[in-house]
Structures are given as structure tokens and as C-alpha cells.
Amino acid sequence: MKVAAVVPHWNRRDLLQTLLANLAEQTRPFDEIIVVDNGSTDDSAAVAERAGVRVIRLDRNLGFAAAVNRGIASTQADWIAILNNDVTLAPDWLEQLLDAAEKEQAWFATGKTLMAGDPSRIGGAHIDGTFDAISRGACAYRCGSGKPDGPFWNQPRRISMAPMTAALFQRRLFEEIGTLDESFESYLEDVDFGIRCAIGERWGVYVPVAIACHLGSSTWGQWNKYSVRLIARNQLLLTAKHFRGLPRWPILAGQLLWGLVAVCHGCAGAYLQGKMAGMRDARSIPSQRPASENSKALTKIIAFVQESERTILEVQRQTGFDRYWRVYFWLQGL
Fold it and tell me: Closest Cα to residue 318, out of 157, 198, 190, 205?
């Protein structure tokens, strides 16, 4: 059984050097490491080649989804780990995920990702992310993001969606479900993939003993206007692909609330630009439900989204409500 690591990368050679050194410390070594360089303007590709890993050089930045797809297509490994360039893995990260995934016969696995450089880590680390969920508003939630680590996050569980910050997937999953949708470019492409996995009844496991640390937003920065524009756009692409036929009120409420958060971070223009681009681009996005299977598929997506929203509500009740979700669920009468 072979395991490959696929690292989509753009600039920040310092992050790449740190990650490649870290990957060499795994107790279960990777059989292959592939860096997909998205047209970096520094010497990142040369740095990776000198480190002895395989490099796929793209002539321009095609986005996260395209880079990951090129990496997947280039390997015949049985398992593929997708890793951001700004993560650091505990030495037994891969070993823990492989053991759990094989024991549970899961299609994918992810662990607990902590905030790197968190000033509060002496007194208690904070979560960067665990597993993903999505609301009926077509807004995704990285469960635990920004919350203190604690007992709730130490419980293994079956999951429907894994964030591609640091996660492990069976290669066969991409052959059966399809690779990442490159129309998303970057952001929410892993959520779209997770929805397709859930509809296809492919599930994964959350393995809290597999620890990673994530610097987070190291390429563009938090609440960068470029990121906000893409997220706002891609929320509408998710809606067009998967939410046709679902109630419109939660979608309107969820995405307007997210827009208010963007406004509070000084990103009103980027949010509006993203929504305008989303309305234009969504016209070319086919629904995931063929007309011949529309009723059955609609029932399945409704059931999944309702269950996923219940997961968000469970997490919020157990770990404390974020302001966004407090208002969202209040509007739903919950």
C-alpha cells in the first residue's frame, strides 16, 4: 500500500521548506511527495526539487482545486494526503489516520488541526479546524474554528466532509466521486467535494489523536478581499449545484448574514463583487441532480443538509455559540 502527499503551493518558499522538512519526520513515511507549484514567482519549485520531491510546475496560478487535481492525476498511490503548505504535522499524523481509516473502512480521514503560533497555547490550544459541515443557508462551517481545545474535540466520530487543509483520501474515491471542481478555483471546493461524497454515501472519520498545526491564511491573510470575493461567489456555485429545490429563506438568511460579517471586516465591495460573479457563473453550473433522478436525489440532499445543520447546532450548543450562528439559528426559530 502506497501513500502520496500532494501539496498545492504558490510562493512562500519558507513555508514549503518547513513543511518538506516536517514530512520527512513521519513515523510512517510517505512513499511519494508531490509539490504542485501554481506558477510561483519566487524559487519555490527549485527549493522543492533540491529537497528531492517531485514537482509539477504550472505556468500560472490556476487555483487550489486545479493544483490538487494535477497532483492526484500524477500518482497511482492507494491513499493521497492533501496538505496546505502552511501546516505542520505531528510525527504520527499519517500513521494515526491510516490506522483509523483502515480499521473503520472509511473513505477518508482527518485529524484535529490546531492554530499554529496561538499565543494562548501555553494555557490551552485553540482549534483551527476539525471536520466540516454545511447549513441550509449554503454556508459552510469548519467545526471548532477559533474555539479552545477541550474534551468535546477529543471524541472520534464519523464525518461527511473533511477540510483539505490536511486530510487523507482513498485514491479510489476520486475515481468514483470525481476530482475537485475547478470552477471553484479556491475556497469551498472541498465542501463541494464533501457534499458529493455524502450524496454518494462515502463517509470518513475524524481522528482527534492525529494532530496538525495550521498557520492559516498565510498566502492572502485573514479577510483578504480576494478571499472574500471568491467565498461569496462560491457560495452561489454551491447553491446552484446542490441546493436547487431547497427552501430559499435559509439560503437568503445565511448568505446575507455572512455578508454582514464581511461588511464588518471592511469587505463590503468584495462581497458584492463575489455575489455578482456568482450569479453570472452559476448559470453555467449544471445541477448535480439529473432530471430522471430529481425527486430521489432531492430527498437525499435535503436529508443530508438537515443532518449537517443539526451537527452545526450540536457543536454550537456544546462549545458555545458564535455570533453568526446564534443569529442564524434564531432566525430559524431554534
Answer: 157
